[in-house]
């Protein structure tokens, strides 16, 4: 075996380089320093190992490395490889709601409605299992390090599962699972039909039989029977689901997702069917589902609640999304913007009510909703404020979706203990009217402008009356009522917001140093708001959300 020397003579011939443990670095190499030519199969591999050998062989390795880095086979410049994202050991969010799912959709660039085999964004038709695994490793590293997601929703269809591409496609599933992620496998219909019906029942159940045989025993794999079944009546959809459950009784119901009726818009009917007790319920909501979409966050929260009914604890919002590549700042004042109000409202509701969610899409090439972009090597975030809202929905430890108070925006104060909001009693416009807690109804007497004064304090002006949130008589005493008064700049009308890690605020009066509270920790609508000495009770904690 020839060994490298440090005599600065030309290095020629066939070499076998070994590491410290005498393992060979294989390949036929012809290296000459004099005429700057090289012959080798994998120069990047050789360079990598030369630098590893530096401590052992010293200057000779430096000479060889310099020769290789400065020369090429045809003596022409070689562009450097792009820098690859460093692998970061992620700490996924715990998630909220059903199964703690906090996820992203990974989609085919064609939108998953395809008649042939699915090819996920970043992969290529014809990729082998090993190639898919390698590419998936990079993409899932990006999902985890950029977003802290713990779940990926992947499409399947009969052509993919029953065809020659299935073995390779499982590389994406297997690698995602190996990274500690949950996986939701959801069935899409083909593009040629797009009628909201299973294309071929025989093929449909053969597909699921194959999938269940492979992944049914894996506790981190969830099965979404059929995506957006808008072609079925509720009765026929229920029959399809009952048939599916009867065929695969060994699958735990807590790992089965049943889409609601329509475009998975309403889960109440399926949720109420006792045959599906224990199953998770998949729901979708987009602003374009509505002919005249609302433009307040509170109205989107109500629309979502109406479609959930009493089944929120079993619900997984498997699709929602908004434009993320147009530069919208989702932390700014809504000011009538439908997209802003939609994303704030939906993520608010998921956070407050503990609804599991999966954003559409986490990655889909060419989709303006895509949270992530992928260039073949690296992932990047399309919109940081959009990511913040997605993470907020997952229950991530960020402030209550309100990092900045915008003077033109209208806010609600929602009590953590009661879920009720700060309201001017009877919508009065007169000074001295009591502030109470009441059910959210969108009225202007429940909306407040939050405007900075000085020293980190703010005044709160009621939208209906334009009067200021105040302590009655400017009292420093505990249990003094909270009222509305003519804005006069006094300390009793100034409030400081102190955020907790779980999204709520303590609201402290500048004049008394006491905090905004509900009398007697009441959860009853109509109870007065008062000031009290600061304590740890939920009755002293408030969400401050845009209307």
Automatic annotation (TrEMBL):
MF terms (GO), sorted A to Z: hydrolase activity, hydrolyzing O-glycosyl compounds
Keyword Hydrolase: yes
Family statement drawn from the similarity comment of this UniProt entry: Belongs to the glycosyl hydrolase 5 (cellulase A) family.
Keyword annotations from UniProtKB, A to Z: Glycosidase, Hydrolase
Ricin B lectin domain residues: 408-545
GO BP, sorted A to Z: polysaccharide catabolic process
Name of the protein in its database record: RICIN domain-containing protein
Pfam families per the UniProt record, alphabetical: Cellulase, RicinB_lectin_2
UniProt entry tagged with the keyword DNA-binding: no
